[in-house]
Every structure is written in C-alpha cells, then in structure tokens.
Amino acid sequence: MLHQVLFIFFGLICVAGAVNLLVQRHPINSALSLVVVMGALSLIYLLLGAEFVAAVQVIVYAGAVMVLFVFVIMLLNAGAEERTRGSRIALWMGGPAVAVLAGLIVYMMFKNQQQFNSVSIGNFVSSPADNTHAVANLLFKDFLLPFEITSVLILIAIMGAVVLARRES
Amino acid sequence: MTAFLIAAVIKIVLVVFLLLTGVAYMTWLERKVVGHIQNRWGPTRVGPFGLLQPLADGVKFILKEDMVPDLAHKGLFVLAPALALTMSLISIAVIPFGEMINVGGTNTALQITGVSLGGGHPTDINIGLLIILGVTSIGVYGVALAGWSSNSKYALLGSLRASAQMISYELALGLSLVGVLILAGSFSLRGIVDSQSDTWLIGSFNTHLPHWYIFPQFVAFFIYLMAAYAETNRIPFDLPEAETELVAGYHTEYSSMKFAMFFMAEYVNMITVGCIATLLFFGGWHGPLFGPPLMQALLPVVWFSAKIFVFMFVYIWIRGTLPRFRYDQLMAFGWKFLLPLAIANIIVTSLIVALGA
Amino acid sequence: MVPLSWYLVLSAILFCLGVSAFLLKRNIITIFMAIELMLNGVNLSFVAFANHWHQLSGQVFVFFVMVVAAAEAAVGLAIIIAVFRTRETLNVDRVNLLKL
Lengths: 169, 357, 100
Known about the structure:
The structure holds 3 protein chains of 3 kinds.
Chain A: H1 2-23, H2 27-47, H3 51-76, H4 85-111, E1 118-119, H5 131-142, H6 144-164
Helix pairs in contact in A: 1-2, 2-3
Chain B: H1 2-37, H2 53-63, H3 74-92, E1 100-103, E2 106-109, H4 128-149, H5 153-184, H6 189-194, E3 199-202, E4 205-210, H7 218-231, H8 243-246, H9 256-281, H10 293-321, H11 327-356
Antiparallel strand pairs in B: 1-2, 3-4
Chain C: E1 2-3, H1 4-24, H2 28-53, H3 57-87
Helix pairs in contact in C: 1-2, 2-3
C-alpha cells in the first residue's frame, strides 16, 4: 500500500516534469523541469532497490550533466522560443503519431501483465547492504572490458569538446 | 512506531535548532578571531564580548528592505537561496553524532536517519556518504541560478566562476574520500566510524595509535581539506565572492533574508565539511569515556563537537592569514594538481590493500 | 506490491514525452534535453527488469548508459556552442542552409 502510494506520487512528479519540459517556452524552465524528473526517477530507483544507481543518478546526471546544460543556456543567453513554420507541421503530424506510439506500448504492457511479477519492497535483487558490493563485483569482473572502453570514450569526448568549443584565434 | 516518530521529530527539531544557533555563533567567532588576527577587537559593544551580535544581525536581516531587481527572473530569484539552504541542511540529516541514547525506555540512535532495530546496535543508510556528495552537487544550482536570475553583469560572471570552481573541485573532493572507503569498506557513515574503533596493528605489534584513517591517508586529508575550502568558497578560494573583485559576485543583487539564506548556507556547508572530515579521518565521536551511563551516551557528542570546533577554527584562521588565488591559478590547482594527486592516492592505497590481503 | 507493468508504463510515457518534445520544440538545447529524457525513460526500464529477472546486469547497463549520455551531452553542447558562434541563433529552423 505504501509502496503504491510512493510510486504513484513520484511517478506523477516525473510525468509532470516531463510535460512541463514540453510546454515551457524558455529553455531554462525546461532544464529545471528535467532536473526534477531526474530527482524523482532517482527516488523510483530507490523503490526498486537500486541504491547505487539512484545515488549515481543524482551525482552524475542531475548534478553534473544538467549543470552543464544550465551553464550553456546561461552562457549563450538563450531567449524564449519563437514559433516557426516547422513546428506547426510537426504538431499536426507528429502529435497523433506519438500518441499512437504511446497507446501501443501501454496496450502491450497491460496485455502481458500476467507474465510479470510484482515488485515489492524487500524482495530486491541484492540485499541492500550489498548492492554497491554486488554492482562493483559485476562491473569490475564480468564487465571490465566495457568499463575500460567507456573510459576511453569519455577521454575522447573531453578532447572533442575542448577542440570544438575553442575560439578560432 | 509512535515512539519512533516522536523521537525522530524531536531529533530533527533539536539538530536544526542547534545547527542554526551554531551558525549564528560561528559568525561571531569569525569576526572575533579575524579581528584579533588583524590586531583589532571585533564586535565588543552588543552584550558582553559582543555575544549578542548575531542576534542583532538577525534582527537587522529581518527588518531590512527586500529588493528584487526589476528585470530579474522572479521565480528563480527566490528559488536559488532556498535551494542553497535546503541542500545544506539535508546533508546534516545523515551525519551521526554519537552512538545511542536511552530516553524514557526507547533506544534511539544519535542521528536523524539512524535507527536502532530492536534496541540493538544502531544502523543507518547504506549510501550516506554518496547522499552527501549528491546533495553537494545539487547545491551548485543555487549558485548558478542566483547569478543568472539577477540579470546583472557582475552577478552572472561571479556565478559562472563560482559554479565552474565548485564542479571542478567536486571531483577532487569525491576522489580523495575513495582512499578512506577502500580501507573502511562501506559507504555508510556509521560503518566508517565503527571501523575506526581499535588501534593500528603493524603485523602483531600494537602501536597504541587509534585506528583513525588520518594516519595512512594524510595525503587524502590534505586534498580533502583544500577541495572543501574551494567547495565552500572560502579563502584562499573565494574569488567569486570577493568584494574587491566582483562587487559581491553571485549574491550582489540579494538583500535581507535571501542574502541571509546564502550566508547561512555557506556556514552550514562549512560545518558539514568539518563533520565529514571528523567522521572519515578522525574517528568521529571516539574519545575517552567516563562517568554515569547518561554522561557516557552524551560524551561522544562532546568529543565530536570539539573536533568540529577545531576544523572551524582552522577555517577562520586560514581566512585571516592567506591571500586569495587568482581564477586561473585556482582552476589550474584543482585540475592539474589536486585531481592527479587524488588518483595517485587511490592507486597507492588499493595496491597496498590488495598486496596486504 | 506494485505490478512491474506500472514501472514499464511510466518508462514508456517518459520515452514518448521525450519523442514528442524532440519533434515539437524548436530550440536546439531543448531538443537535446528531450534526448536525455528518452535515455532516462530507458534507464528506468533497465532497472525495473533488473529487479524482475533478479540479475544485476540491468543496473550495470544503466551505469554505461549514463556514461555515454554524459559524453554525448558534452560533445553535443560543444557543437551547439560552435554553431551558435557562427549562426547567432539557436532555432533549428533557421539553421537550414549549409552556407550562411
């Protein structure tokens, strides 16, 4: 019961933040709504027993990636959006298409509902005290190669960002 | 269940009250100590030794006119200081002050988010340290949005510099704590303090030094302290709010209560830094225990406060003594010196632990 | 007891809102944020299924998705800054010619 109430509460905050991102004209408001979505998602990860992922979501996603977005919006002094020709076509054709996509996915989920178990607090993948240990074991033993490749990927991204954003002199 | 809720509410009210009083008197301490370093008295007129000065300051902040610039983004202008103060106060919720205390028949842990299941040894959140790091990351928004919503050149420049400085030093801050985590084996703050209980044994020789992580991790402590000074925007890293450089940086356009909120957030962040340094490097609340059981339950809190007081004094002492870094020197120091040193510390620590096991 | 399909429906809703924001908004930074929203929706699916199948690989994969999203955000924003320097606009409808 408490689990359902918590999930619906945080789920509503997520959806409200995402709708706000869609509706707002100024990019800074969209950025802050996205931060709210990420915070609420981190709490939903806690409901699913993924403590380490929840903490990393706040530290990395909400606390670093979104700060980068807010920085760029502040630096470029982006103003409110203007309505141009392209957005009207996208509204008339894209809106119904996305609604159909959403309806299709929701229908499939509810049709296969019996095949999925329920999530309950206490029946998590790993015991809460061991979540970080278990994730670290998996990350550094079974998934060591992807880990090393992503570190090379970040290095490439850093170098690329520095080169691209440099002023021509 | 109701006993648990009542104990939790009492703990929250008590901790917040003591914390805000501590913040107020830290401003008094700062003015007195910096004054004496600069060969003058500091506040002496309001009450004996100027002890009622924070009260007078509080009244001044409440009664001052609260100005909002004309073209400022009103929502964000009000949100930024509230966000800064809220995030500072949230990190106090996971900090343990002592073991357990038995009040009126119920055992409760001396920590807002600590429980003692079935009256036994207290436990707390498994990812306590990560919560503090996460909340520090969200605190950057308070600074960034404050400058941008003020719609003023000095404020925008100051906030861009301050937030770039804060996110650069967050890396060194987090990495410097990894050495302690390797030795302690847990993210939970109570677990880290509990692993500092015994004494250091080299082989089978008992050195009679307490098992505090300052002894093997002195490099990490040095990195942590400097990164923390940069995170809290204190001298020698306080260029973004220096008066001679950028008027007042990101809080130029703020007055009265909103400025007071930024001010309080800065001091609460300093106290949090002191708490984490004590918990991770200096054994938290461990110290000699004596006396009747109630005193034995409260004496750890006294040792904890004494250790934090030492850190606050060092903060204020350094403020009175050192000049400030220039901005490019500051960023070079964070990226080119502290970050490689923190990574080297992690490598050396893990090698020693892995080879010793 | 929350049925797993509720988590998946929430993930689907977030993903579809991300797609619609991607199609409808004209500011390039907002389009980027819609991509991040889509990635977050997918992350929720991964964690939900990690709980369902009792394997931690889902959570490890979320880790990798976050890292890739961070790298992509850094490079994408650098490109946006470079485009802004020459075109002086952030509206995607105005960046429609190869030559200025």
